[in-house]
Amino acid sequence: MNNVKKRSLVTVLATTVLLTACSSPENVNQVEQANNKEQSDSRTAAADAQDRAVRITADSSSTEQLLWAYIYRQVLRESGREAHVLGDDAVSTADRWEQLQTGKADFMITCTGKFVEDTSPVLAKELASQQDEDEQRDPNATDIHEHLHREVMGLLPVHIVTTNPSSAEGCPDAELDLPQDFTPLFSSRLFSREEFGAIEGVTRLIDKRALEELEDKLADGLSAEDAVGQWASVNVTGESLDSVSDEA
Questions:
Q1: Residue 222 shares a structural domain with residue 152
Q2: Contact 89, 61 (CB under 8 A)
Q3: From the CA atom positions of the chain, what is the Rg in Å?
Q4: Do 12 and 87 have their domain in common?
């Protein structure tokens, strides 16, 4: 019994010594310094990310993907931010998603349904099946576009974000019958509030008609870069982006 009491007393004393040491002014100061350094490093990393050129990855074999890439580049440059398009033929959604996650690219364009289909096939099939059932019961019962957008956000890691999707749809190679609204994905530390607003504004501004106008310019012999430049000079202004954002 005495031995048990002695061991208990030793344990209490040892714990008290450790707690006292940890709560001493010197150690508290060290913890505060470490926390401050971590916060400072995080702010520095965010500032560095917002200073450098943005790398936009796109499948250059897709006319719509390429147009979207140059649209975002144009808007970013108008905001004073340098940006480059990393065009690559036949790069899959999964490949570009990996580039974004690993830091080889900063920004990608995808379609909501195709993104879920390629990154979470089981979920995509469940959503397609649920959509069929809902449409049979009541075609107006749910907004599958909004629901799918929420599912996309749920699949993103904390350092990747998106905006509200465009009303324009693409990705005709998708296997499942899901909405294919164009949407951007990018690093959460990449842009200032003003730049984020410009990206969200142009995403909502570009609709099916706008893409068709841009494709007509390509048919006239313009490059994607020149087509977007001409179209944006007339249709994309600070006021137009602000008005679209206000409607969100």
A1: yes
A2: yes
A3: 25
A4: no
Q: What is the pLDDT of residues 43-68, one digit of tens each?
A: 444 445 556 799 999 888 889 989 99
Is residue 195 scored above 70 in pLDDT?
Answer: yes
- CATH number assigned to the domain comprising residue 104: 3.40.190.10
Q: Which of 188, 193, 183, 200 is nearest to 146 (CA)?
A: 183
Beta bridge partners of 88: 59
Tell me: do 15 and 137 sit in the same domain.
no
pTM exceeds 0.85, yes or no: no
What is residue 161's DSSP assignment? E
* 145 & 96 share domain: yes
Q: Are residues 32 and 132 in the same domain?
A: no
pLDDT for position 55:
95
The range of the structural domain enclosing residue 33 comes to: 2-45
| Distance, CA of 61 to CA of 87 (rounded, Å) | 9
With beta carbons less than 8 A apart as the criterion, state whether 233 and 102 touch.
Answer: no
Rounded-to-integer distance, Cα 237 and Cα 216, Å: 21
Helix axes 193-205, 238-247, angle to 10 degrees: 80
